[in-house]
Amino acid sequence: xxxxxxxxxxxxxxxxxxGLINGAFYAVLSLxxxxxxxxLNIINFSHGAQYMMGAFVAxxxxxxxxxxxxxxxxxxxxxxxAFGIVLERTMLSRLYKLDHLYGxxxxxxxxxxxxxxxxxxxxxxxxxYAVPKELAGGWxxxxxxxxxxxxxxxxxxxxxxxxxxxxxxxxxxxxYLRAATENPALVQAMGINVPIMITLTxxxxxxxxxxxxxxxxxxxSVNPLMGSNLIIVVFAVVVIGGMGSIMGSIVxxxxxxxxxxxxxxxxxxxxxxxxxxxxxxxxLIKPAGLFGKGA
Length: 295
Prior knowledge:
single chain, mainly alpha, ABC transporter involved in vitamin B12 uptake, BtuC, two-stranded antiparallel sheet, 11 helices, 71% helix, globular
C-alpha cells in the first residue's frame, strides 16, 4: 500500500479531498458574508439560514414541481435572493447608519425564525437529495477514488468565487459599488440609484449562500440545521481572511478547508477546533485579518 509520511495515500488524499470540498463551501459562504459586510456594513448572521433555504428550495422544486438539479441551481439563488431583498428593504435598510451590533442582532433573530419555521415543517432529520445522473459515479485515479460530483462542487465554487472577485474588483459596476460604500452622495450625484444598488448587492450575497446550499444538498442532505452547524466556522473564516475582504474570504476558505482535512489525518481530535485556533493566532498577530485593511 502506497504511503506518504507514514500515512496511507488513500486516507491522506481522501481527507484532503473532503477538506477541499468543505473549503469550497467555506469560500462561497464567506465570500457572500464578506461582500455584504464590505459593501453594506451589515454582519449577516442569517447567512447560514439562507444557505439552508437554498437547499430546501432545490428539494421543494424537485418534489413538487419536478425541477431537476440544474434548474434548481439557477432557480434557488433567485428565489432566496428575492426573499433577501424583501428583508433588506423592510428591515436591514433601517440599520445602515447604526452600530454593527444592531444588524447582528436582527439577522441572528431572523436566522432563528427561519430555522424554526423549517424545523416545525420538516423536523430535523436529513432529507436525501439525489446526485444528478450526469454527475454520478467517479474516477479511479489509482491512489484514490474521485467522485465526479465532488469534483464538480470544487470547480463550480472556484469559478463562482473568481467570477465574483473579477466583478467586484475589475469592472465598472464593482467600482461603483466600492465607491458607494465610501461616498454614496457622490455616486448618487452621478445618476446612480445607490439604494437599489445596495439592495441588489445584498440579494447577490444571499444568492451566493443559496447556490452553496444547492451544491451541498446531494452531499450533506437537506436539513434545517445545516446552516447553523456551518455558520460559526464560516464567520471564523471571514475573520481570519479579513472582514470585508473578497480575496481573503476565497483564499482563506479553501486553505482552511485543506488544513482541516489534513488535521483529520494527522491529529483527528483537533479537527473540529483547528480553524478557531488559527483564528486566535491570526487575531493576536494581525487583528484586521490576513487580507484585511490595516493588516
